[in-house]
TrEMBL record:
The keyword Nucleotidyltransferase does not apply. This is O-antigen ligase domain-containing protein. Keywords: Membrane, Transmembrane, Transmembrane helix. The chain crosses the membrane at residues 13-32, 38-61, 73-90, 96-117, 124-148, 168-187, 192-208, 236-255, 323-343, 350-370. It comes from the Bacteria. The keyword Transmembrane helix applies.
């Protein structure tokens, strides 16, 4: 990694535009809760116009090039099919509109990431982690000033703060904690900023615990396991101390009456015994629909179309699952392509190349399973797609080829495709 390239990335106008677009999504959630629902349409239009202007700007600099990315054919095929299937919804206008709010932001991210990859994939990985850290630090930071009470041990379902709800706190805290590991290790921060992050980490961990957000806690827990057993940088004594401190914190919180930990336990018990969990009910409803109409396995019911969900007994307005949006909306073949781009290839890169550098792949793969993030205004759309598209970089594959000693011809083929590799 090269600190000069990282500093060049954060000064690049494309990177700063991506930061603004990501931050405006989070700010939009805060505005919706604090100002009121009437503000949402106005702010949404503003964000969409900015995304379009940003897309035009990055195309001006990058063109339509995806030279640094793998899976380009699959990505464009996915976009075309998902957009085309939006027209087959029972409410085509609404579905097409949502399709456009997926396609334009995604294209913007693809071309932005491709442009920024000229600085090197590992340098961009660290810089993107810094971006995510700053943007999502805003959420627990707002809780510190507008919702914090030292006596609180559970904010799920109670007064949660002025700007966000518990899920937002849980997801944001997870992203902050995991991105801080990367930033503190590899980004050349000034000492005062490093100190601020270190001081803020215990509070953010506290917010994660009391949020009661199961997806965030699950992601953080799995990432912690990776840190313990796969990380080669932290010492054994550091890991042991960290385990001890985390165990004490969780144990003390669980002893409190009506804490977030005990609430999670009760919710899990009730939902397992009764089967009354909205996402599970929705999944069973769509499986019934597909059983009654087997052609849906190949065509889907149309992107962003929830008629079948409600017809067969779904109790939630949408699937609340980004992967189910694609499976039930576009069918099994498109779903397999989506999994290859968003899970299979990125996880291989994570396992083989970057698990010692970044753990953000874990929450950004897991959390979308519990929430829909397929449109540009969704809370985690920008970090999810930016990070995953980055993991589809050819540079990571090239490092893998070099590391594994694969044939020289494959290496030359990748080099001839003009991949720029910067010295680490």
């Amino acid at each position: 990694m090269n600190s000069k390239y990282m500093q060049a990335i954060i000064k690049d106008a494309i990177f700063r535009l991506l930061f603004i677009n990501m931050f405006l999504v989070v700010l939009g959630y805060a505005a919706a809760y604090s100002i009121g629902p009437w503000f949402i349409p106005f702010f949404s239009v503003f964000k969409q116009v900015l995304v379009f202007v940003s897309l035009v700007y990055v195309i001006k600099l990058n063109g339509f090039s995806t030279i640094y990315l793998l899976n380009k054919f699959n990505i464009y095929l996915l976009i075309c099919v998902m957009m085309g299937l939006s027209f087959f919804s029972n409410e085509p206008f609404q579905s097409v509109y949502k399709g456009l709010t997926f396609i334009f932001p995604l294209l913007y991210i693809i071309y932005s990431v491709n442009y920024l990859l000229q600085y090197g994939a590992y340098n961009l990985l660290v810089s993107l982690s810094l971006m995510i850290l700053i943007v999502y630090a805003f959420v627990p930071f707002s809780f510190l000033f507008f919702g914090f009470d030292i006596q609180k041990t559970n904010i799920y379902g109670y007064e949660e703060g002025r700007f966000f709800v518990s899920n937002n706190y849980g997801w944001s805290s997870t992203l902050f904690l995991l991105s801080s590991i990367t930033v503190l290790r590899f980004y050349p921060l000034k000492r005062i900023y490093r100190l601020f992050i270190l001081i803020f980490i215990p509070f953010v961990f506290y917010v994660l615990l009391i949020s009661g957000n199961r997806a965030g806690l699950l992601s953080a827990g799995l990432a912690f396991i990776f840190l313990l057993f796969k990380d080669k940088i932290f010492s054994f004594m550091f890991k042991f101390t960290l385990v001890l401190l985390l165990f004490i914190a969780v144990a003390l919180l669980s002893l409190k009456e009506n804490s977030a930990i005990s609430t999670i336990e009760r919710r899990n018990e009730v939902q397992i015994e009764s089967g009354n969990e909205g996402r599970l009910i929705g999944t069973n409803a769509m499986l019934k629909s597909f059983d009654n109409n087997p052609v849906y396995w190949f065509t889907g019911v149309g992107m962003f179309n929830y008629t079948e969900l409600h017809k067969y007994g779904g109790i939630l307005p949408v699937y609340h699952n980004s992967y189910w949006e694609v499976l039930f909306g576009a069918g099994i073949f498109v779903f397999i392509i989506f999994l290859k781009i968003m899970i299979y290839d990125p996880f291989r890169v994570f396992w083989n190349n970057i698990s010692n550098y970044s753990l953000l792949a874990i929450p950004l793969i897991i959390i979308p399973f519990f929430e829909s993030n397929l449109t540009g205004g969704q809370f985690l759309f920008f970090p999810w797609f930016s990070y995953i598209i980055l993991l589809n970089s050819k540079e990571f594959r090239l490092y893998n080829i070099i590391k594994n000693g694969h044939e020289v011809q494959t290496y030359k083929k990748l080099v001839n495709e003009e991949i720029v590799i910067h010295n680490s």
